[in-house]
Amino acid sequence: MKELVEVLAKALVDNSEEVNVSSREENDTVIFELRVAPQDMGKVIGKQGRIARAIRTIVRAAAVREDKKVIVDIVQ
Amino acid sequence: MKSIEMSARSVEEAVKLALQELQLTEEDVQIEVLDEPSKGFLGILGGKMAKVKVSEKRNPLKVTKKFLENVTAKIGVQVTVVLKQEEAGYVKMELTGKDLGILIGRRGDTLDALQYLANLVANKQNNEERIKIIIDAEGYRKRREDTLVRLAVRMADKAKKTGRRVVLEPMNPQERRIIHTALQNEQTIETLSEGEEPFRKVVISLKK
Predict the structure, then answer these.
(1) What range defines the domain where residue B191 resides?
(2) What's the CA gap between B116 and A53, in Å, rounded?
(3) How far is B5 from chain A (nearest CA, A)?
(4) pLDDT by residue (tens digit) across B38-56?
(5) Which residues contact A26 (CB under 8 A, 6 or more apart)?
(6) Shared-domain flag, residues B106 and B169
(7) Where are the alpha helices (DSSP H) in chain B?
(8) How many structural domains does chain B have?
(9) Which of A53, B11, B39, B104 has the fewest beta carbons under 10 Å from its own?
(10) pTM for the predicted model, two decimal places
(11) CA distance A73 to chain B (A)
């Protein structure tokens, strides 16, 4: 799933080499922290968070398969 | 994006060799002439070879198809993406394979999210005409359309019978359009949309 977050983010940003995803698990929830270049923040968030919402929807679909809860955080 | 530099006696020949090497055709690449060839003195001394740089052009549809293949593979679903050029105005990408339900999601929300991101990827760095991509899986879009048309007719009947407005659940713009279109020829019924995205709803009521 971590790779999924990376693939999604890299396809959207201009500076794909600056995409970084880390993950940690708390109870049955996996938390992904997505970091991108400052000028690419808008490319993974979108107007009113629309892009971020789409990313979360897709990651959640993958999580269902693994029977886990996920949170995708976009951090600065 | 692949790119190579190639030298030969003439520009044409250098391009030809570069295309062979990249296994691409001329419409897929951008060609930059780095050095024009020159004949040396009496064609013997100090002749210079032609040098070109041939780079693969970003083909938005190819890139988007690849994106969908990568994403679905990472979700853990075996999917083939079939590209169908439909009516002018949009390109349809059909996902086929097993376990597609997971890619469709509840009321198609996963499919819509994939479609939204695919459109962003297709139009990234694209200054020309906007490309519109519709993604479908297992004929979901058609099935959903049929369901919505039936729902529209049923709810219009309800409005006629009760004389009250019928408020449908929130839908995205494409789905609301299907409802409006399904009922546009009803003489006694009118439809409009209320509320703010993403909770905008269709309201069916009697014409005053």
Answers:
(1) 143-206
(2) 10
(3) 25
(4) 876 665 566 788 899 998 8
(5) none
(6) no
(7) 11-22, 60-75, 101-104, 109-123, 140-162, 173-183
(8) 3
(9) B39
(10) 0.78
(11) 17
